[in-house]
Design a protein that fits this description.
Elements: E1 6-10, H1 14-26, E2 30-34, H2 37-46, E3 51-55, H3 63-73, E4 79-83, H4 88-97, E5 101-104, H5 109-199
Parallel strand pairs: 1-2, 1-3, 3-4, 4-5
Helix pairs in contact: 2-3, 3-4
C-alpha cells in the first residue's frame, strides 16, 4: 500500500509539471502529471489523489471546468488553480465551484510546497468536520432509537402489569361493592330515622 500523498498536476506546459514533480518528489510526495483536462479526468477514474493542481488556461477544457468535474466526482479532493491570469471573475467562479485556492505564476519551490501543504491541511480539516458531524448525527439517531425502544418496553410492561392486576382489581370491586351498598343503605336508613324523629 502506497502511503505517499498523491498529487496530480494538470498543465499543458510540461515545464510546470516537471517543477511540481521535482519539488514535491523530494518532499515525499508522488506526483502524476497530465497535459489536458480530458487526460486528467481519465486519470482520476483510475486513481485517487490527495490534491490536484490545474492550470486555468489549456486547450480544450479550461481549468475551472476541469475543477468543476473533479469536484463533482471527488468532492473532498482539494483542487488548486494555477494561473498567470488571475481575475476577480475567475476567482469568484472558482469559489462557487469549491476550489481550494489559486497559485500564481511564476512558481517557486517554496510556493509549490506551501500551497500543497495548505491544501492537504484544509482537506484534513474538512474530513474531520465531516466525521464529527456524522458521529454527532449517529449519536442523536441512537438516542432517539433508544427512547423509542424504552417507550415500547414501558408500554409493554404497563400492559403486562394491567393484565396481571386485572383479577385483583375485579376482586377489589367485588369486595368493595357490597360494603358501599351497605354504607348507602345504612346512611339512607339513618337519614329516614332522623327525619321521623324530628317530625315527632
Amino acid at each position: 500500500m502506497n502511503t505517499k500523498p498523491q498529487v496530480l498536476v494538470i498543465d499543458d506546459d510540461a515545464v510546470v509539471g516537471r517543477s511540481f514533480d521535482r519539488v514535491l518528489t523530494e518532499k515525499g510526495y508522488e506526483v502524476s502529471t497530465v497535459r489536458s483536462g480530458e487526460e486528467a479526468l481519465e486519470t482520476i477514474n483510475n486513481a485517487e489523489f490527495d490534491v490536484v493542481f490545474t492550470d486555468i488556461r489549456m486547450p480544450g477544457m479550461d481549468g475551472l471546468e476541469v475543477a468543476e468535474r473533479i469536484k463533482a466526482r471527488c468532492p473532498w479532493t482539494p483542487v488548486v488553480v494555477i494561473t498567470g491570469y488571475g481575475t476577480p471573475d475567475n476567482e469568484a467562479r472558482a469559489s462557487v465551484l469549491g476550489v481550494n485556492g489559486f497559485v500564481h505564476k511564476p512558481l517557486t519551490p517554496e510556493i509549490i510546497e506551501s500551497v500543497t501543504l495548505k491544501a492537504l491541511d484544509d482537506s484534513e480539516k474538512v474530513q474531520e468536520r465531516s466525521i464529527n458531524t456524522a458521529t454527532a448525527i449517529e449519536a442523536e439517531v441512537s438516542v432517539v432509537e433508544e427512547m423509542r425502544t424504552l417507550r415500547k418496553v414501558s408500554k409493554f410492561a404497563k400492559n403486562i402489569g394491567l393484565f396481571f392486576a386485572s383479577p385483583f382489581i375485579a376482586l377489589g370491586y367485588v369486595i368493595a361493592l357490597p360494603l358501599v351498598g351497605f354504607y348507602m343503605f345504612a346512611k339512607l336508613g339513618f337519614e329516614a330515622y332522623q327525619k321521623k324523629r324530628n317530625s315527632t
